[in-house]
Design brief:
The complex is a heterodimer. Chain A is α/β, with parallel strands linked by helices. Among the domains of chain A are: 159 residues, Rossmann fold (3-Layer(aba) Sandwich); 67 residues, OB fold (Dihydrolipoamide Acetyltransferase, E2P), CATH 2.40.50; 76 residues, no CATH class. In chain A, strands 1-14-13-12-15-10-11 form a 7-stranded mixed sheet. A 6-stranded mixed sheet of chain A has the order 2-17-16-20-18-19, with helices on one face. In chain A, strand 10 and strand 11 form a beta hairpin. The mean pLDDT of chain A is 91. Chain B is built from 17 helices and 1 strand. The chains are: A alpha/beta, B mainly alpha. Chains A and B meet through strand 21, helix 9 and helix 10 of A and helix 2, strand 1, helix 3 and helix 17 of B. Strand 21 of chain A pairs antiparallel with strand 1 of chain B, so a sheet runs across the interface.
Chain lengths: 450, 384
């Protein structure tokens, strides 16, 4: 049985450079890297050294404040380099992969009799735990918490993002196993799919299926939680990415850690955007070469979609959580009188001070120009247009900027994650960094309230 | 080419150079020519084309029809009174000669203060004053001395805006604060029958009372509905023509820059109040038709361009409705009950500016209460 959710506010950005539904195997990668900064708030304690041999599934580091949470190597090979930044912060653990892959194999009990404790223990020991994130705070889940529900979104609405019917093609069996396993951790398991979803995902058993309709951010799991079972103060919910459910399922089928990543490599500068079957931490360079990212000097490579991703480079690695790699041209150019109303019809705007409303079907080719400068918050009502939650976004942002914890709590900080404010980043005329403000506020809340 | 020249000129203002402190002032001019080459550093990697400059310039475009008509009407009122024959151009030139210096003074004084504060506080110059600086001369009587314009501007920018933290933080609409300052500081220049027509204070034969002024003193008016609507009547420079204000309103509503909720709310509030007074009908102002109330005086201009200032108005959707309706009601109330201030819209908006945060507080609080209730409900379900 499915329940329908209709989202009305939001924005579907129509960009050029989407990937056609063709799935290729990614060109072999010699180097893999795990980037501890992908796990927000995790302070890594290394258990490997440069030069040591690791098997696939063998821990590289654990979380200093939650020692049971292990982060494992996606491949077997030698730790080639540990890159550090300011204050010796670990930025990258690079592993050069062996030709012959060896994996740590875990012993599995019979799946039909498995207890929640056994599930938890196995997820932690095998390195699958970081796939589970928690709300509030949008961080790796605390294994000691009891979530009131687990949410999985199999709907991607962000611009150019990878579609889950392609990602989960051929992984449905592992996906179902993953759902069965996760349902041991919480009886309230919610899976959201698109309103038109016709693939097998919509027939997944052992969970409540929600059909979600509407523009971006309808696919954001935070928006779905808000409409299904909103988070109150002192409650916790867990969220798992749809492909990670399949990864977890595969582990419980084989006993071997398998961090597969189906990537949509997209963007209008690319000649042949495409889907690739790859692994977490794989090197991006051979993939980018394959899609024809010429002239990489003035392009920006983004781990994730163009609204929420993290900037990396052509020498970077596939991030831990993203199914999309976006490529954009850098926008470091001046535009004479570009601020005049109706100037620059090639740049999309949700405001009617641009002519882009005349071309609703047009595919835009954006760059990374800020299209203005940061200013005081003046215009009202523009944030609400792209924010489909029963929350006042501008009032919440102002409370966050003022570090007013009590007010943030009242206005619903527990229900939001930075990604929910991505469209506000995009649309607000004052060019304030809403996602960064929310991230800082969540960190403050975590520190003060826990 | 031009870009290279600018980059060369900007060198002494770069970070670490001699005149670094004055960079905001120079950047303000630069960003007028070019949208800067800043790229996104964090957050979303792509951004909408709209920025504050574009938003503010849209308001200025919306103001221009009313301004041009106001310039023409200044000359028209003058020549009608003197009885000279005149052409459109004569009237327009007479008005330009009067009004352009006022605009120059308003921008000169206001922008100087804005730039000084930007340098002092080390932030970029906000574009808000571009609109305020044009609004102030547009709502003044035509014969006000230039130094009074300058002083009102300085008062408004210092006290109404920068004292509260600058653009985006002000409680009161700065342009209306300037007018209120002039109104209370120099009442003889702001009311009576000698200020609304060009040269009326110098030439004995010329005089002209605003319609509301006449009504307040119990005199009925002999202007036709069409004259009141088109704006061929004495009054503050650009407020008289409801027709051209409506053109501006259409621009604001279509581009989404001005809130139609506030405008519609204001019209509804004023119409209801005016109608109720029509039913009562105890004096000439009460007998004045409710629909005429909407087209005379500064009501149309105020509700379209002043009440919709997003910073000083209510910010929530429901708040905007309440705010707009109350502005309309208060405007007619002040007009009818206080003969000393026949123009009620200025005080009505300023008063509602003060109450806007309170309105928003209650609207937001209902959201907060809903969240608290939801939590209590879920705890009771869990314990039960």
């Amino acid at each position: 049985m499915s329940i329908d959710i209709k989202i009305r506010k939001g924005l579907n950005l129509c960009l050029k450079g989407a990937a056609p539904n063709i799935l290729k195997t990614a060109p072999a990668s010699t180097n893999y890297a795990i980037n501890p900064t992908d796990f927000h708030g995790v302070f890594p304690k290394l258990v490997c050294k440069e030069g040591t041999f690791v098997q696939a599934g063998q821990p590289l580091f654990f979380s200093k404040y939650q020692e049971s949470v292990q982060f494992v190597s996606p491949v077997s090979g030698t730790v080639k380099e540990i890159k550090r930044g300011a204050k010796r912060k670990v930025l990258e653990i690079v592993i050069s992969a062996d030709k012959k892959q060896q994996s740590v194999k875990h012993k599995l009990p019979a799946l039909d009799k498995i207890t929640p404790e056994q599930v938890k223990e196995l997820l932690l020991a095998s390195g699958n735990w970081p796939f589970i994130k928690q709300r509030p705070y949008d961080i790796v889940a605390d294994p000691n918490a009891t979530p009131k529900a687990i949410f999985i979104s199999a709907l991607a609405t962000a611009p150019l993002s990878a579609q889950f019917d392609v990602i989960l093609e051929g992984q449905q069996d592992a996906f179902q196993t993953g759902i069965d396993i996760l349902s041991k951790l919480s009886p309230n398991l919610h899976l959201s799919v698109g309103a038109q979803e016709s693939s097998q995902i919509a027939e997944t058993k052992n969970c409540t299926i929600h059909r979600v309709k509407g523009p971006h951010p309808a696919g954001n799991v935070g928006v779905q939680i808000h409409h299904i079972d909103p988070i109150n103060a002192s409650e916790t919910v867990w969220v798992v990415g749809a492909e990670d459910v399949a990864n977890i399922g595969r582990f419980f089928q084989t006993g071997v850690f398998d961090a597969s990543r189906t990537l949509a490599v997209v963007g209008h500068p690319l000649s042949t955007p495409c889907y690739f079957k790859s692994k977490v931490g794989a090197s991006l360079a051979p993939i980018l070469e394959d899609v024809g990212a010429e002239n990489l000097a003035n392009l920006r490579v983004i781990n994730g979609d163009v609204l929420t991703g993290t900037a990396t480079s052509s020498a970077g690695y596939v991030g831990y959580y993203n199914n999309t790699v976006s490529v954009l041209p850098e926008g470091d150019r001046y535009r004479m009188f570009g601020w005049l109303p109706f100037a620059g019809p090639n740049i999309h705007s949700i405001s009617n001070t641009s002519l882009s409303w005349l071309f609703p079907k047009r595919q835009y080719t954006p760059d990374t120009n800020l299209n203005g400068e940061e200013r005081a918050l003046v215009v009202t009502g523009e944030m609400e247009r792209v924010f489909p939650m029963d929350i006042y976004p501008m009032q919440l942002l102002k409370a966050c900027m003022a570090n007013d914890i009590e007010k943030m709590e009242q206005l619903g900080i527990y229900e939001v994650a930075p990604e929910d404010f991505a469209l506000i980043d995009y649309a607000n005329s004052s060019k304030i960094e809403a996602q960064a403000i929310i991230r800082d506020a969540l960190d403050l809340m975590y520190k003060e309230v826990g | 080419m031009i870009r290279k020249q600018i980059d060369r000129l900007k060198k002494p203002f770069a970070k670490g150079s001699k005149f670094e402190r004055f960079a905001p002032a120079v950047n303000a001019f630069d960003t007028f020519l070019f949208v800067p080459n800043h790229t996104t550093k964090k957050g979303a990697h792509i951004r909408d084309a709209v920025d504050l400059k574009r938003t503010m310039v849209t308001v200025i475009i919306a103001l221009i029809p009313a301004l041009i008509y106001g310039i023409y009407n200044t000359g028209y009122q003058y020549y009608i009174q003197t009885g000279e024959t005149f052409t459109f151009l004569d009237a327009f030139l007479h008005g330009s000669f009067k009004i352009l210096p006022m605009i120059a003074v308003s921008y000169g004084v206001g922008l100087a203060i804005e730039f000084a504060f930007a340098v002092y506080r080390g932030h970029e110059v906000n574009e808000g004053y571009l609109v305020t600086g044009l609004l102030i001369p547009m709502i003044m009587p035509v014969d006000i001395p230039l130094w009074m314009v300058g002083l009102s501007v300085a008062f408004a920018v210092f006290i109404a805006k920068e004292a509260f933290g600058g653009t985006g933080m002000n409680i009161l609409n700065p342009a209306l604060t300037a007018r209120a300052f002039a109104f209370f500081a120099y009442p003889t220049y702001m009311s009576g029958n000698k200020v609304w027509v060009s040269e009326a204070s110098n030439v004995d034969g010329i005089s002209g009372e605003t319609i509301l002024g006449s009504l307040a003193s119990g005199v009925s008016v002999d202007y036709s509905m069409f004259e009141m609507f088109s704006g061929a009547i004495p009054g503050s420079i650009a407020e008289t023509s409801t027709l051209w204000v409506l053109v501006g309103a259409a621009i604001l509503i279509f581009t989404g820059v001005g809130s139609w909720r506030i405008m519609l709310g204001g019209v509804i509030g004023a119409a209801i109040m005016g109608y109720l007074f029509n039913l009562w009908g105890a004096n000439t102002l009460m007998q004045f038709d409710w629909y005429s109330h909407l087209i005379v005086g500064g009501f149309a201009f105020g509700i379209v361009f002043m009440a919709t200032d997003p910073v000083s108005a209510a910010q929530t959707v429901r708040g905007k409705w309440i705010y707009g309706i109350l502005v309309g009601i208060l405007c007619i109330l002040i007009r009818v009950f206080n003969p000393a201030y026949p123009e009620g819209v200025m005080l009505a908006i300023l008063l509602m500016n003060v109450f806007a945060p309170t309105i928003d507080h209650y609207v937001v609080q209902s959201n907060v209460n809903r969240r608290l209730k939801r939590k209590q409900h879920s705890t009771t379900v869990q314990t039960a």
